[in-house]
Structures are given as C-alpha cells and as structure tokens.
Amino acid sequence: MSAQQSELVCNRIIENFLEKLQPFGLDRFYYCIIPDELSNVCIVPDEQANTQNSDSNEELHFAKMIDLKKMRFAVASDPEILKFREEFLHRFARSDEGYQLSGPSIRKRYNPYIWPENTMPERRKKSFEQLLNLHKIRTRMSFYHPVKDKKGWIGICNLFSCNGREEIIGNMSSASNELETLLREFAETFNALAFKTINPISNFRVLSPTCVEILSLVAQGCSSEEVGKQLYMSERGVNYHIDRARVILTARNRTNLVSKAYQSGLL
C-alpha cells in the first residue's frame, strides 16, 4: 500500500507551493523526513534493540534501520505521485543508477540534484519508461533541507516534471537561488505543520503503532500494569515496548522518555 498524504497540510498551502514551482517547470512533488546519511546518528535493528543498555546515552544510528518502503505519510501534490513512488521503490529502485546517486550525500555537490534520465539497465528501460509515461514524468529532482533542532534528520523534497531535463536545467540556470529559497521556505513550513505524521520514527515504523499507543498511556500517567489491562497485554510485554522506546529515543527514564516522545512528534 502506498503512503498517504498527510492531512496536516491544507490544500491551499500545497496549491501555493505548486503555483510558485510553475516558472521552473516543476508540477508535482512529495516531501518527507529521512535519516541523514552524513550524520553520526543512525538506527538499531529490532532484534538488537531490547539487548541494548537503555540507560546508555550513546546516539543510535537511525539510517540503518529505516526501510523507505514502509513510509506511511508524506506531504504530496497528489495521491498518484505517491503511487509512483511505491511502484518505483518496489520494482526499479535497486536498478536505477540515478536513485543510487540521489542520497543525502549528493548535496555536498548538488542541491537541488536533477536526476539523470532513464539510467536503468537495458533490460528494464522499456518497462520503466512505461511507468514514467503512465505518471507523465520526464524529469526528477531531489532537494535536501536539514530539520531544525533534529540532529540526524533531513527533509527531502522529490520534485517531478512532465518537461525534459534540459528544459528544467534551463529554467533553473538564471534563478537557482530563487528555487533553493522557495524549497527551503516550504520545507520548513511542512516540517512545522506535518511533523507529527512525517517524523521518521513513527512514519517508517521504527516504533510500532502499539508502542506509540503505550507511550501515550504512559504519558497520561498509567503504570505498566494499568497499560497492560487497557491493551490486553502482559506487563512484561508492555515493559518490552517501553524499553525499546527508551533505546530508540535514548531516554534515561520514563519521564525523559515521555518528554522525548513529544519532542520527536510521536505524541
């Protein structure tokens, strides 16, 4: 199932963004927050999380735990662009040279980064071209923007156009600074409005919905025993989820865990 549009950003703001993108020949987009591969902050696999010392203050490496296919929400121009994303990640991403080059590290050289044209192996080019034609996409672009006060997280705006790559480059040649300013402005707007749905911890299911529900009850002052009774779980099961959350959020205790859950947009 493809990601859904976050309902926390109203259509008026999205339409305003699309209107300002028109002079550059860009007509569709989706925005989300992902781990920054250039940061020291990364992620722990599920099977290792409960073996970590939950009192440790070491920063975790989030990037290794994120599965981009599991994204639940994005700020997007339309639902169809999210369907394109879903099919691309499942069928073509591993073979696409442009995708391999488009990670956050590309911003050290290009930001925005205009993807090369169809770089699929010969045997996959035709089927990928059909997918692009189906969604009226000729050019793809990525822009990265650090998330304020969130070390290790970075916003990515993937933009699309029905126009050719050379035309987009020409549109940008005399106004690249204006485009960067525009993309930064709206990235910050999306972060401010939609952070609860697009923060990577819940958006990529690093913490399960059950774990987030438990955190919500803990934030209300419930004990593990009380949480277990409400959710029909054993106290041990509740504590497992709490300990896992403490590891992921590097929290010292329950009070600190609740605080960090709010700061991370989970609650």
TrEMBL record:
Q: What residues form the membrane-spanning segments?
A: none
CDD domains per the UniProt record, alphabetical: LuxR_C_like
Pfam families xref list: GerE (PF00196)
What GO MF terms are annotated? DNA binding
Q: Give all residue intervals belonging to the HTH luxR-type domain.
A: 200-265
InterPro entries hit by this protein: Sig_transdc_resp-reg_C-effctor, Tscrpt_reg_LuxR_C, WH-like_DNA-bd_sf
What top-level branch of life does the organism fall under? Bacteria
The GO biological-process annotations, alphabetized, read as: regulation of DNA-templated transcription
User: Is Lipoprotein set as a keyword in this record?
Assistant: no
Keywords (A to Z) from UniProt: DNA-binding, Transcription, Transcription regulation
Q: Which SUPFAM superfamilies match?
A: C-terminal effector domain of the bipartite response regulators
Please state what the protein is called: LuxR family transcriptional regulator
